[in-house]
Automatic annotation (TrEMBL):
GO terms for biological process: Gram-negative-bacterium-type cell outer membrane assembly; protein insertion into membrane. It comes from Vibrio casei. The gene is bamD. Part of the Bam complex. Residues 1-21 form the signal peptide. Belongs to the BamD family. Residues 27-232 form the Outer membrane lipoprotein BamD-like domain. Part of the outer membrane protein assembly complex, which is involved in assembly and insertion of beta-barrel proteins into the outer membrane. Keywords: Cell outer membrane, Lipoprotein, Membrane, Palmitate, Signal. PROSITE patterns: PROKAR_LIPOPROTEIN. This is Outer membrane protein assembly factor BamD. It is found in: Cell outer membrane.
Length: 242
């Protein structure tokens, strides 16, 4: 019985060794390895590209391909949905290359990665409202794109960043609107009013700002505050005229 157990264990170890050898990246010149990695990137073979790029990064951390390997890893991790690794690689590269010529792209990729962390395939597929989800990735993405525009207003990524900022602003306003509605349903009238006023102040040109007036009106009515009711109703009527 023991002998059979030992034979089975040895077989498993041999199979594991074969699998490791099969998955191992060949020890070839860095130029050849990078060529293979680049071919995988071009064909969308993200997993294989990552495997080869990580091998290059570990074997030749200060080689001639060092910077480009890091940039390629950022892109491959992002395309493969490995967002924590994408951000970690971005932080590492930015720390080591604070004035790199592609710093605008680095900022852009950071924004895209934070933005992707707010997305969810099933939510998008079924068109589900994501306004009650954690807004921190959205806030981070908004900050990334805003910083890119401030530092590199003429970047080739500036136009797309401006479009994304509008989308992110609407997303943040919708989150605050969901919070205001939450307070209203819990009969936390003052908290609901404060959140609505914050939306109107911070995101005045969004749909959520207009919707917040309805919540604000209900809260003022619940408190029987006539001045607040009149002022809010006047704002609602004014928006209808526009």
């Amino acid at each position: 019985m023991k002998r059979q157990y030992l034979l089975g264990l040895i077989t498993l170890l041999l199979l594991a060794g074969c699998a490791d050898n099969k998955d191992a990246v060949p020890d070839i010149p860095p130029s050849d390895l990078y060529t293979q990695a680049h071919q995988e990137l071009q064909s969308g073979g993200w997993t294989e590209a990552i495997k080869k790029l990580e091998a290059l990064d570990s074997r030749y951390p200060f080689g001639p391909y060092s910077d480009q390997v890091q940039l390629d890893l950022i892109y491959a991790y992002y395309k493969n949905g490995d967002y924590p690794l994408t951000l970690a690689t971005i932080e590492r590269f930015s720390r080591l290359n604070p004035t790199h010529e592609r710093s605008d792209w680095i900022m852009y990729m950071r924004g895209l990665t934070h933005m992707a962390q707010d997305s969810n395939f099933m939510h998008s597929l079924f068109n589900m409202n994501r306004s009650d989800r954690d807004p921190e990735p959205v806030k981070a993405a908004f900050s990334d794109f805003k910083r890119l525009l401030e530092r590199y207003p003429n970047s080739q990524y500036a136009a797309d960043s401006r479009i994304r900022l509008v989308s992110l602003k609407n997303r943040l306003a919708e989150y605050d609107l969901a919070s205001a509605d939450f307070y209203l349903r819990r009969e936390a009238w003052i908290a609901a009013i404060n959140r609505c006023q914050e939306i109107q102040k911070t995101y005045p040109d969004t749909k959520a700002a207009h919707e917040s007036l309805k919540i604000q009106l209900k809260a003022y009515k619940a408190l029987n505050l006539e001045d607040g009711i009149k002022q809010t109703q006047a704002l609602i009527d004014l928006n209808k005229e526009k």
